[in-house]
Amino acid sequence: MAVKIINENCKGCELCVKACPFDAITMEHKTAVIQPGCTQCGNCIEVCKFDAIEKSEEAAQTFDREAYRCVWVFAEQREGKLMPAVAELLGEGRKLADELNTELCAVVLGHQISDLASELIGYGAEKVYIGDHQELDTYRTDAYTKVIGEAISAYKPEIVLLGATHIGRDLGPCLAVKADTGLTADCTRLEIGDEERNLHQTRPAFGGNLMATILCPHSRPQMATVRPGVMEAAVFDPQRQGTVIPLEVNFQKGDIRTKVLETVKSIKEQVSLSDADIIVSGGSGLGSGEGFALLEEFAKKLGGVVGASRAAVDAGWIDHSHLIGQTGSTVRPSIYFACGISGAIQHLAGMDGSDYIVAINKDAHAPIFQVADYGLIGDLYEIIPCIMEELDRSHE
Ligand code: FAD
Ligand code: SF4
């Protein structure tokens, strides 16, 4: 699809220049000219009174569909350890690869990381592309984009999946630009939806009020970042066999424009919400930040961790790293306690996959009760101490 000026119809009125939100039309010799910044939004076509602009189909479908095969997973590692999202991507990638009757592959970059290949094979990767170089020791956008971008153009994967982590969110768009393809960010569902091998990529839209399914039918690879904690992780099997393919890594002066001077780890206590088996979450019903002390005590007794709703985080009662929901972590614990949380759709998006949901709320009509397996109607400051007392008694 491309936007074109029909020169013989153009009267040089400049209406299209003013209408273009991307400054992508200039005038040359009293005729409009489309510039590379054009996003094909079509605004100019609507305002032109002389039928001098049209959208043509000529650029569509220029890729050779048969040339692209394999599902690739970007295996993010830090300090030689795979991120938990990688096993989830391999779990999801396996389903897609089986449906497409193709191979599941992982691509991993770093320095002295050869051990990771067998781990990735154990999680189901049939091929592991490995880029080992000291310049890849710590993640840098330029370095990773160059190496993986070149690998994509050499091996032509059909699908490339990345975790929607900080690194995945940075790297994904750069790779998509390099490969001249599209990317759907923050997907929560992936399916092969048709015979054209198109990946149907679903993600929340409009504040989580509806789910949008996005396709990339005119280019390959199809790229998506996937929300951590949503997809089921692949099961590790040390018996699996696979092939390791080293990637050529060559950097010229100027290829990498940034230097890592120092890595400063957050001194905040890290909460591992996505791995937790029991989560006790608090919302604005706590009434103040002090309420989280009670939840901490409760969580400790249960061997769990503390989560929070956006209202509690926005009130400054607890750090953002505890946030659960559409803009925070997605969790799937065995038991999720929602204490003083109303159950807004954006919160449910992050926790409704929990095995058991226990809601404590003084409003019997709170929407959280619609997803709760057990509902306790009443004041959390009365109910939680009662439960803790019972727990103490049962341990005596
Ligand atoms: P409220 O909705 O105010 O509910 C408080 C509840 O506590 C009430 O049901 C009340 O009956 C109960 N209560 C009060 N006192 C007590 C008591 N003493 N004992 C027991 N119960 C009591 N929210 C998230 O959580 N996570 C997200 O990731 C997120 N992302 C968002 C993204 C967008 C784009 C938007 C627009 C919103 C997002 N939100 C998110 C906000 C979300 O819409 C809600 O506003 C938020 O979840 C409400 O938090 P809450 O349930 O703690 O507060
Ligand atoms: Fe500008 Fe949109 Fe017209 Fe392209 S299609 S020139 S972006 S108005």
TrEMBL record:
Gene3D superfamilies: 3.30.70.20, HUPs, TPP-binding domain. Keywords: FAD, Flavoprotein, Iron, Iron-sulfur, Metal-binding. Binds 1 FAD per dimer. One of its GO terms (molecular function) is flavin adenine dinucleotide binding. Its cofactor is FAD. Residues 1-30, 32-58 form the 4Fe-4S ferredoxin-type domain. GO terms for biological process: fatty acid beta-oxidation using acyl-CoA dehydrogenase. It comes from the Bacteria. FAD binds at residues 309-310, 340-347, 361. InterPro entries: 4Fe4S_Fe-S-bd (IPR017896), 4Fe4S_Fe_S_CS (IPR017900), DHS-like_NAD/FAD-binding_dom (IPR029035), ETF_a/b_N (IPR014730), ETF_a/FixB (IPR001308), ETF_alpha_N (IPR033947), ETF_asu_C (IPR014731), Rossmann-like_a/b/a_fold (IPR014729). Belongs to the ETF alpha-subunit/FixB family. This is Electron transfer flavoprotein subunit alpha.
